[in-house]
Design a protein that fits this description.
binds NADP nicotinamide-adenine-dinucleotide phosphate, alpha/beta, 38% helix, Rossmann fold, UDP-galactose 4-epimerase, domain 1, 16% strand
Length: 302
């Protein structure tokens, strides 16, 4: 079984590499911002929009693709529509065509941003209604995936945290850790809610669903529904930083950013039924992240 993982150096992609464990051959792909020194798997540098991708499908006889690559910075997507559209939609079209041609199964990674956040908790059967460019573009990708074949799985993770590859973008946890370490004041919104998810658990659940699930769409999220301010306080407590550096604000305080759905927390009943388990809450997830790097208190490595 040969699986191609796009976005293999990103937050989710790098945790998928960690969680893979002898499930067959995993081949990673990324756009090549830098050279990977310590290679656990073979990596290719190739843009998902590039025709050259076909040679990787041919060479490795790809049976399935886990497609995580794309532009997912919400504010950047709002300001750079052409780039966001082509990286996500044109890239996904290219992957779909290759999957059709090579009869490969497609696992597409979407997002909670397909929902407007007005009627949580969201089930897989709820109707999407994105309110920003990123959400609209990801929903368009989902539609293309559904229309292309029946051999697909759509995974919608919620906001993830974990250790990012040092050359990749920060996530809410590593951004907070950098600021806390530098004793900077941090403003965090207390009116945007998610059931945040440890990226390693997301990767592990995604791989289990890709192997065993009967359904086509799954929401993956942690156990606790928290706002960003509450998440920041919990992180400071677990990593041993000064909570007083963090102050609550309303989302409306930030004028220049893309619209954010207020509460896209998920109903995870379908996931729990399939996995026969409930995912961790924020305290357990952040503690697992802390242990992952054997961080000494007050000396968190970021
Ligand atoms: N992070 C979250 O909280 C979150 C929440 C919900 C859903 N998601 C979804 O989960 C997926 C993964 O997100 P992430 O946060 O792990 O991503 P990420 O950390 O931003 O990493 C993006 C990855 O995609 C690669 N990439 C970007 N453009 C590419 C292109 N044109 N061709 C080939 N590779 C390209 C990057 O390679 P280079 O670095 O070399 O450019 C990198 O490996 C995305 O589809 C996102 O929409 C994420």
């Amino acid at each position: 079984m040969n699986t191609l993982l796009t976005g293999a150096t990103g937050l989710l992609g790098s945790y998928i590499v960690k969680a893979w464990r002898r499930r067959g051959n995993l081949i990673g792909l990324y756009s090549g911002n830098y050279k990977i020194e310590d290679k656990e798997i073979p990596y290719y540098i190739c843009d998902v929009r590039d025709n050259k991708l076909e040679s990787i499908f041919r060479k490795h006889k790809i049976d399935s693709v886990i497609h995580t690559a794309g532009e997912s910075r919400v504010d950047f997507c709002e300001r750079n529509y052409e780039h966001a559209y082509s990286t996500n939609v044109t890239g996904t079209k290219n992957i779909i065509e290759l999957c059709k041609r090579h009869k490969s199964r497609l696992v597409y990674v979407s997002t909670n941003a397909v929902f407007d956040g007005t009627k949580p908790p969201y089930r897989e059967t709820d109707t999407p209604n994105p309110i920003n460019t990123y959400g609209r573009i990801k929903l368009e990708c989902e539609k293309l995936v559904r229309e292309a074949s029946d051999n697909f799985l759509i995974i919608r993770p919620i906001l993830m945290y974990g250790w990012n590859n040092p050359k990749e973008r920060e996530n809410i946890a590593t951004w907070l850790l950098r600021k806390l370490k530098n004793n900077e004041q941090i403003l965090l919104v207390d009116d945007i809610y998610d059931n945040m998810l440890y990226a390693l658990e997301c990767a592990d659940s995604l791989l289990k669903l890709a192997e065993e699930s009967k359904g086509n769409v799954y929401h993956i999220a942690g156990k606790d529904i928290l706002n960003r301010y509450q998440f920041g306080l919990k992180l400071a407590e677990i990593f041993g930083y000064d909570k007083n550096l963090i102050k609550p604000v309303k989302n409306s305080f930030f004028k220049e950013i893309a619209p954010r759905p207020k509460n896209t927390s998920y109903d995870t009943a379908k996931l729990e039924k399939e996995l026969k388990a409930r995912l961790m809450g924020v305290e357990a997830g952040l503690s697992a992240m802390f242990k992952e790097k054997n961080c000494a208190r007050q000396e968190a490595v970021i």
